[in-house]
Specification:
Keywords: Cell cycle, Cell division, Mitosis, Repeat, TPR repeat, Ubl conjugation pathway. This is Cdc23 domain-containing protein. Pfam families: ANAPC8 (PF04049), TPR_8 (PF13181). It is a single chain. It is built from 29 helices and no strands. Helix 3 runs antiparallel to helix 4, helix 4 runs antiparallel to helix 5 and helix 25 runs antiparallel to helix 26. The protein is elongated, with a radius of gyration of 31 Å. The protein has 533 residues and is mainly α. Among the domains are: 57 residues, no CATH class; 125 residues, Tetratricopeptide repeat domain (Serine Threonine Protein Phosphatase 5, Tetratricopeptide repeat), CATH 1.25.40.10. It starts with a helix and ends with a helix.
């Protein structure tokens, strides 16, 4: 029979192969055997990079982790003290706590589902991480992962210290994209993002190859906080030239087109992505939004069937199917599929936001408000959720609340005319006409929409400045039929009978508007004609 040392050596060689082949149950069985083999003979000599017991414990714990037996993973690593073992043990503790939290939660948005069920392991994890960092000052990839986990847990606890640990993590080991994503989640304003990027740019770690990771991070921050920045487009051009087939960059370009309301360009880019990676479901939430806005029902239906054929239990698939039902006006069915997406992943931002939209369509403002709040818990930079909250409170005639939420949305999308239009409408409802005028002028600076010109004219009339009102009415003559009727009244009142007759006659010929308006225009034309000398 072979010696214990030979069996240990053979098992250690077999385990990486089994794990790489994703034969997790076989790997677990082999790892349990490895740890059951008695200690090597007293005089056996083996080349050891670490103490064999800890090495073998980590191998066994990894197999438990791969099989999602997180509590067994934690137990197996209790005697181990290295940074690698500590990270795996605490990360398994965290995931175990998350799984138990999800199991204890009730149905999505039920009376018992308050959205704040805690992960009971987090306090213990923070204490252990703090103790580890006090005694261990070395910098390594595994220490970086511990800082990452520390940042994740503190972020869940809404602790401002999360940012410091996440910055340390990306400096020590810049290739963990999850750490960059969590770091981005700590930055809620453009100023905070710019300060963070400046600090990282000054670090020597990002002078060489790792600098590319910082550039990718800058693109994502700009996309979320400064989507119309020329710097964003320049960076995307530079990175695309270096990595032309990287789907991440194509998605960022598509997002840029989506935020600029250029839906045709966004659709074309997503079509390119799916042509090269036809089974991809990542980022489909934005693609389906594009198709929804463009009212491409047939294409959305095809996307829903395709996603279901790839994986019907992915949250992204549920969102695609829900959006298809929404486009058909089947809002209850859409909500059912969004709930299904959230049952699979409570942090699915798109599902919370889009479900809020469905509740608004059903005039269920209170449920919509709760859905939007959950979306903001997942990502405070989601302008759609802030805008949705504004709409929900507006339905409830709570215009002061609506104004606040629209302002938050506008701070994230300052070049989106819809934000300023909504803010101006709230000011109108609150009888703050001077502020409404200022806001419509901002919207007009973004998009010379005749509607904004007409609204400005009516507001200037309300504050008694008929001269400015007439200027704006003249600007929107081609786009707003009622501008002619207003100008006809205005000219008749000030004695401009020829102009009054012409405006009233044109309005009558166009025959647009309510019957009473047409009759009033005819009356003005008759009166003006009498007075023309």
């Amino acid at each position: 029979m072979s010696s214990h040392s030979d069996l240990r050596r053979a098992l250690r060689q077999a385990l990486p192969l089994l794990s790489d082949a994703k034969l997790y149950q076989s790997a677990k069985w082999a790892a349990e055997l490895l740890n059951a083999v008695p200690d090597p003979e007293p005089f056996a000599t083996e080349p050891l990079s670490r103490l064999p017991p800890e090495d073998d414990c980590i191998i066994l714990a990894r197999t438990f982790f791969d099989c999602k037996e997180f509590d067994r993973c934690v137990h197996a690593l209790k005697p181990c003290l290295s940074a690698e073992a500590t990270f795996l043990r605490l990360y398994a503790m965290y995931l175990s706590g998350e799984a138990k939290k999800e199991r204890s939660s009730e149905t999505v948005l039920s009376a018992q589902d308050a959205g704040g069920t805690p992960n009971l392991q987090m306090s213990a994890i923070v204490r252990e991480l703090e103790a580890f960092h006090k005694t261990n000052k070395t910098e390594s990839a595994h220490t970086a992962l511990l800082h990452y986990l520390h940042g994740v847990v503190l972020l869940k606890q809404k602790n401002a210290g999360a940012q410091e640990h996440l910055e340390k993590s990306v400096c020590m080991f810049p290739y963990n994209w999850s750490a960059w994503q969590e770091l981005g989640a700590t930055l809620a304003t453009p100023d905070a993002a710019q300060a963070c990027v400046a600090r990282l740019q000054s670090r020597p770690e990002f002078a060489g190859v790792p600098g590319a990771m910082l550039q990718f991070f800058e693109v994502v921050l700009a996309q979320e906080l400064l989507p119309h920045s020329p710097h964003l487009q320049a960076q995307l051009d530079e990175l695309t030239a270096l990595y032309p087939s990287f789907a991440f960059l194509k998605v960022q370009r598509a997002l840029g087109s989506y935020h600029a309301l250029d839906y045709a360009a966004a659709e074309e880019l997503f079509d390119e992505i799916l042509a090269t990676d036809p089974l991809r479901l990542d980022d489909m939430d934005t693609y389906l939004n594009v198709l929804y806005v463009m009212e491409k029902r047939a294409k959305l239906s095809h996307l829903a069937r395709f996603a279901a054929s790839v994986d019907e239990f992915r949250p992204e698939t549920c969102c695609v199917v829900a959006n298809y039902h929404s486009l058909k006006g089947e809002h209850e069915k859409a909500i059912m599929y969004y709930r299904r997406a959230l049952a699979l992943n409570r942090r699915c931002l798109a599902a919370w936001t889009l479900m809020g939209h469905e509740f608004v369509e059903l005039k269920n403002s209170h449920a919509a408000i709760e859905a939007y709040r959950r979306a903001l818990d997942a990502n405070v930079k989601d302008f759609r959720a802030w805008y949705g909250l504004g709409q929900a409170y507006e339905v409830l005639d709570m215009h002061l609340y609506a104004l606040y939420y629209y302002q938050r949305a506008a701070s994230l999308r300052p070049r989106d005319r819809r934000m300023w239009q909504a803010i101006a409408h709230c000011y109108e409802k609150l009888h703050k006409y001077a502020e409404a005028i200022q806001t419509y002028e901002k919207a007009l600076g973004i998009d010379e929409d005749p509607l904004f010109q007409y609204k400005l004219a009516t507001l200037y009339e309300l504050v008694g400045d008929e001269e400015r009102a007439s200027e704006y009415m003249h600007m929107c003559l081609d786009g707003e039929a009622n501008a002619r009727l207003w100008l006809a009244r205005y000219e008749l009142k000030r004695g401009g009978y020829v102009a009054a007759y012409e405006y009233a006659n044109e309005f009558g010929i166009a025959n647009r508007g309510l019957a009473q308006d047409v009759e009033e225009a005819r009356g003005i034309a008759r009166e003006a004609k009498k007075r023309i000398v």
